[in-house]
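REQUEST ID: PR-0412
SUBMITTED BY: lab tech R.K.
PRIORITY: routine
TASK: structure prediction, single protein chain
INPUT:
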Amino acid sequence: MSPIKTFDERFSVLVGNYGSGKTELAIALARAARGRVALVDLDIVNPYFRSAERSALLSGEGVEVFMPSFAMSTVDIPALPAELMKVFQQPYDRVIIDVGGDDTGAVALGGFAPAIRPVRSEMRVYYVVNACRPFSATPEVIAEMFGLVAARARLTPDALVNNTNLQQQTTPEVLAQGHAIVCQAAQTLGVPVAFASGLEGMQSALPPGTPYFAFEPVMLPEWMEDCP
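STATUS: complete
OUTPUT:
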C-alpha cells in the first residue's frame, strides 16, 4: 500500500459509519481550504449532525454551502436538487462532500456517479472511522461496512481516516488504540490510512510520521449543547 497525497485533491469526499465524525471533519477541511471552496452536505439520513447547521459560520468565512432543499427541515427524503451539480461544473479550488452515514446515506452519492466519472482523477474518497463507535470497533466490521458503502455509493474509497474520539474526553491513548484498529482494517482492505484527525495535541501517541489533521469541533449532539 502506497500513501496517497493528502489534501492535494480538488474533490474530497467523506463517507463512513454513523458517529464517525464525518461532518465535523468536513467542516474543518472546508474552513482550512484556500481559494474558492464549496461544502456539499449530502446527509439525507441523520438530522442531528448536518453541516447545514453551520452554514452561517461557513458562509461568513467564504465557504459556499450546498445542501438538499429539505435540510434543516422536518422532511427527510432522498431528493437531490439539480443545483448540487454546480460543484462539478464550476471552477472551485476545493470541494468537500459530506455523505450521510452507512450504506443508506451513500445512496445519495451514487446518484452523482455520471458527474463524478469525469473528475474522478481529481477526487479522493476518504472512509472516516471512529473506532469508539458501534460497528466500527474491529477491523472486520470496518471492512464489512466499507464494502457496503462502496457498493451503494458506486465509488470505492481511496483511503481510511482515523478519527477515533470520545468527544472532549478523548486522550492520545484513545486515538492511538483506534489507529491500530484502523491500520489493521486498511491492511485487510488493501488501502492506505491517509491520516489521523482530532483535537490539537492528540497525536503524541501515534507512530512517528503519521499525518495528522488537528481541528476544533464546532458541533455537538443536541443533547450536549447545553452542557458546560
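NOTES: The mean pLDDT is 84.
REVIEWED BY: pending
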